[in-house]
Amino acid sequence: MNHLSLPSFQIGDFSVTALSDGNMAASLDLLSGIDIFDAGSIQRSAGIAEPGNIHINSYLIRGLGRTILVDGGTGGLNNAGGLLKENLNELGVSPADVDTLLLTHAHPDHIGGLLDAEGEPVYKHAEVFIHPLEAEYWRDDDKLKEASERGKRNFALARRVLDAYQQNLHFFDGNEIMAGILPVWLPGHTPGHSGFRISSGNKCLLIWGDIVHFPHIQSANPAVSIAFDCDPAQAEETRKAVLEQAAREKMIIAGMHLGNAGFAYVFIAEGGYRLSYQED
Question: How high does pLDDT run on average in the chain?
Fold first, then answer.
């Protein structure tokens, strides 16, 4: 692991680079299953100066002649993030170079950067892959009717993105999307929320999407959920299972809200788990 401004891992044939999109303002009040004072104490103990901020990452995967982007950041929506293009440019990668988009799910901080100001695809040459249950959820008119006003805006954005990329849209199943990259269904946060696993020999890197939003809090207390979860109970079950597996298999974890370091390891701790940005 390196800790330059754009940390990256080489695993097998692929180089995986964390691309910061910046932060979005949030509040510890969004959490349930923990006292807000205790949540703040965990954040401060982890050295986080703004306890309520949520950091946003995307990931660039390069290898075997492919240029793959996992999630597209916010695009600056709601005055959040918007740094992804700048960080891609730092690597010498333009949107036209991206041939594949892998989507963990369709919340605004993951797809807001996929459309330009005119509503056209930013990544015009990219084939887009998403779990079929994710597309089904955002296209469900009954779910739309039940949504809050903010939720309705999220549905509208997801539908615009799915429609804009319709000609290049693909649904993955349990098989490899391409040689060496396996989708992993991680339901709860959204119905089709998914991760992507790259393995080489005895090493494994898992891009786990939004298993955690406040990584130090939700690893120490996996039962803590956030208001963004569609199904909090299922999200908790998935989080506990993934944390246990990551610790047991000594996985390298990449997550959209892990912070600037971009990558971490999971270790068993009293009552839960802890994240470390270096291998112990």
Answer: 95
Q: What is the pLDDT of residues 57-109, one digit of tens each?
A: 999 999 999 999 999 999 998 889 999 999 999 999 999 999 999 999 999 99
User: Residue type at 206?
Assistant: L
The answer to whether 197 touches 181, Cβ cutoff 8 Å, is yes
**pTM for the structure as a whole:** 0.96
Contact 130, 169 (CB under 8 A): yes
Neighbour-count burial for 35-61, b at 16+ CB within 10 Å, e otherwise? eeeebbebbeebebeebbbbbbbbbbb
Give residue limits of the domains in the chain: 8-276
> Is 80 exceeded by the pLDDT of residue 278?
no
Helix (H, G, I), strand (E, B) or coil at 145: helix
What DSSP assignment string belongs to 156-171?
A: HHHHHHHHHTGGGEEE
Do residues 180 and 13 lie in contact, with contact meaning Cβ atoms separated by under 8 Å?
yes
Nearest to 131 by CA among 74, 187, 73: 187
- The second-level CATH assignment, the architecture, of 8-276 is 4-Layer Sandwich (3.60)
- For residue 138, the 8-state DSSP code is H
CA dihedral over 185, 226, 110, 12, signed as positive or negative: negative
Q: Taking 70 as the threshold, does the pLDDT of residue 45 lie above it?
A: yes
Take residue 24 and report the two structure tokens written for it: 């979005």
DSSP 3: -
CB neighbour list of residue 147: distance below 8 Å, 6 or more residues apart: 154, 155
On the question of pLDDT at 270 being above 90, the answer is no
Instruction: Tell me the C-alpha distance between 183 and 209, whole Å.
Output: 11
Q: How confident is the model at residue 280 (pLDDT cuts 50, 70, 90)?
A: low
